[in-house]
Design brief:
By secondary structure, the protein is an alpha+beta fold. It has one domain (12-147). Helix content is 42%, strand content 16%. It has 5 helices and 3 strands. It has helices spanning 12-25, 67-70, 81-111, 117-121, 133-147; strands spanning 30-38, 41-50, 53-60. A 3-stranded antiparallel sheet has the order 1-2-3. Strand 1 (30-38) and strand 2 form a beta hairpin. Helix 1 runs parallel beside helix 3 (81-111). It is globular and about 65 Å long. The mean pLDDT is 89.
């Protein structure tokens, strides 16, 4: 099966702007994005606030050096630099369109009463330490499956904040 929007011509910045408009239409009151590079790999981080929750998606971008862009099928011959760049840009456009699709589908499911905001965005919800619920829970799930036991308590009750 080929990736969603594999042949899209919509520029990445237009998809980002559409994502921002969509989030605002559904009630987000904050939106931002930035890119970062770690270990030679670029990621786009998209965040927004809705329903009094901070949500973060990390969109891993393909490396410009990836052989899928730089090599001709079979991997023996080098592609022309401009062709490799075009193929990389296409993959970047595809990822932005896919993110837009996912977020729109989640928001529409919530709006239609099929699901709740918490159910749709729980794994991408930011915790006070900057990690997401998904990042925090995945190791616990792995351990539970490895042991074949339910975790004792995944979310601990927090003490009430002290008044000042």
């Amino acid at each position: 099966m080929s990736p969603y929007a594999e042949h899209t011509t919509v520029p990445a910045d237009r998809s980002r702007a559409e994502l921002e408009r969509t989030l605002a239409r559904y009630g987000a009151d904050q939106f931002g994005y930035f890119w970062e590079e770690q270990a030679g790999r670029q990621s786009i981080v998209v965040g927004f606030r809705m329903h009094n929750r901070m949500i973060r998606f990390r969109l891993h971008m393909p490396s410009r050096d990836d052989p899928q862009f730089t090599r001709v099928s079979g991997g023996y011959r080098q592609r022309a630099a401009h062709v490799a760049e075009q193929r990389w840009e296409q993959a970047t456009r595809q990822r932005w369109r896919a993110l837009l699709l996912v977020v729109k589908a989640k928001l529409e499911a919530v709006d239609a009463g099929i699901s709740t905001f918490e159910d749709e965005f729980l794994s991408a919800t930011l915790l006070p330490d900057g990690s997401t619920v998904g990042e925090w829970a995945k190791p616990q799930l792995d351990a539970a499956y490895a042991r074949g036991l339910m975790p004792g308590r995944m979310l601990l009750a927090l003490p009430e904040p002290k008044g000042e």
